[in-house]
């Protein structure tokens, strides 16, 4: 699995490509349809705080429209039954800026090549809508000639549902999703960059080649009836960007974490859920790596005894995902107890080795004695024993007893970690 920096770099490339493709598709179709669809500017006004003049969408296509400072939809709705329904129209290559879209159901609509800037979408349902289409300039020649006209969302707030939508090749940048549902949607080649996800539900979605970056406030649940799909190109930037000292300040997505610990624990929980998705989709290595990363994130939000236990689990075995950590612990333990035996004392084949803090011994003799103590440490750790090397005195026997218990535990742990990796 890619490391954090590789994931960040790859998502950055995807994000830039979506922006580039948007500019390219917009310019191409603007020139192609300049006589048929000239740009239409529709500027509204703010009537009072957070409320603009209302624009009524007619049952017609909107191509190359620019909407600025408008309200769309019903001002009041007790339930989704009271929403205004907009059905079967094309809203392509349009720009919505500083608008409010509320209490609307868009059904079988197309938003290809559109851009939403600082738009609040509250109580909005996208039902069987499309947000991107392939573009073939000057006819089809080669595969590389085909690219997608994406839809861009910048600094938008979502409270609503996406139902059976095609949201491929879509960029969400500094967007905030609250109490939002994604049901039976496809998000292939889409990117959520520096977003906030709070109380988000996903059900049976296609997340292949989908990417999330710089998203610290994460609360996603997967309530699948079948299975949300992922693949090796589903990228999750798992690092925590917000610092504890800045938890009460607005982050890049425009939201405040407030409780750094809760933020870390929730993000860790979401990463674990996503790791299980990888396992269910047949990617056990990715499942294990994301589980490890989730524990690292969780560690940032723990305190006291829980933090100590988690830190020990990280150091000793990498939460069961790093057998080499256990091997390193075995080596360090062996060398450390070899040093302890030099002072607690052993009988090495009739020769007593027991050092004190005072006194001087030739360096070559010290090295030779330490080698014998390390040998005794190895035989004690492995609980094999060697007849003519025995602990000297009560203290040395206690130390060797503790050492044997550690040896049995670490060897079993190492075997378990290796078996777990191989079994996957």
Question: What features would you describe in this structure?
Answer:
The protein is α/β, with parallel strands linked by helices. The protein folds into two domains: 4-258, 3 Solenoid (Pectate Lyase C-like), CATH 2.160.20.80; 323-423, Helix Hairpins (Orthogonal Bundle). Helices cover 36% and strands 25% of the residues. It contains seven helices and 27 strands. The chain has helices spanning 4-32, 260-280, 284-299, 304-317, 323-344, 363-381, 393-423, and strands at residues 40-43, 46-48, 51-54, 62-63, 65-68, 70-73, 84-87, 91-92, 95-97, 100-107, 115-117, 120-127, 133-136, 146-149, 151-154, 157-163, 170-173, 176-178, 181-183, 191-193, 196-203, 211-213, 218-222, 235-236, 346-348, 351-353, 389-391. β25 and β26 (351-353) form a beta hairpin. α5 (323-344) packs across α6 (363-381) and α5 packs antiparallel against α7. The longest helix is centred in the C-terminal third of the chain and has 31 residues, at 393-423. The chain is elongated, with a radius of gyration of 31 Å.
Give me some keywords for this one:
alpha/beta, Pectate Lyase C-like, eleven-stranded mixed β-sheet, nine-stranded parallel β-sheet, 7 helices, 27 strands, about 35% helix
């Amino acid at each position: 699995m890619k490391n954090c920096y590789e994931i960040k770099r790859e998502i950055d490339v995807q994000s830039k490509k979506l922006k580039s493709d948007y500019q390219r598709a917009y310019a191409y179709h603007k020139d192609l349809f300049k006589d048929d669809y000239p740009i239409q500017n529709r500027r509204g006004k703010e009537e009072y705080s957070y409320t603009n003049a209302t624009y009524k969408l007619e049952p017609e296509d909107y191509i190359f429209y620019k909407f600025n400072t408008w309200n769309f939809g019903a001002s009041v709705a007790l339930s989704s039954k009271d929403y205004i329904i907009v059905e079967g129209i094309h809203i392509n290559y349009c720009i919505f800026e500083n608008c409010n879209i509320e209490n609307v159901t868009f059904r079988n609509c197309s938003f290809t090549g559109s851009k939403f800037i600082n738009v609040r979408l509250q109580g909005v349902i996208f039902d069987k809508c499309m947000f991107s289409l392939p573009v073939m300039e000057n006819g089809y020649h080669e595969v590389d000639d085909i690219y997608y006209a994406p839809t861009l969302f910048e600094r938008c707030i979502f409270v609503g549902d996406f139902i059976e939508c095609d949201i491929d090749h879509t960029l969400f940048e500094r967007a905030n999703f609250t109490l939002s549902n994604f049901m039976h949607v496809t998000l292939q080649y889409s990117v959520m960059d520096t977003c906030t996800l709070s109380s988000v539900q996903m059900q049976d979605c296609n997340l292949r080649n989908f990417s999330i970056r710089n998203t610290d406030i994460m609360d996603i649940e997967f309530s699948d009836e079948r299975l949300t799909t992922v693949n090796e190109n589903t990228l999750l930037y798992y690092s925590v960007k917000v610092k504890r000292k800045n938890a009460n300040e607005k982050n890049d997505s425009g939201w405040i974490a407030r409780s750094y610990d809760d933020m870390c624990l929730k993000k860790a929980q979401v990463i674990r859920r996503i790791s299980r998705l990888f396992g269910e989709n047949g990617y056990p290595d990715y499942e294990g790596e994301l589980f490890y990363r989730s524990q690292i994130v969780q560690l940032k939000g723990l305190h006291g005894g829980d933090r100590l236990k988690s830190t020990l689990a990280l150091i000793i075995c990498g939460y069961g995902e790093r057998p080499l950590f256990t091997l390193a612990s075995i080596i360090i333990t062996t060398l450390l107890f070899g040093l302890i035996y030099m002072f607690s004392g052993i009988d090495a084949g009739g020769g007593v080795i027991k050092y004190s803090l005072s006194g001087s011994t030739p360096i070559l003799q010290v090295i030779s004695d330490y080698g014998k103590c390390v040998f005794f440490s190895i035989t004690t750790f492995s609980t094999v024993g060697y007849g003519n090397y025995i602990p000297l005195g009560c203290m040395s026997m206690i130390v060797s007893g503790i050492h044997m218990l550690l040896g049995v535990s670490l060897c079993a742990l190492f075997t378990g970690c290796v078996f777990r990796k191989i079994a996957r």
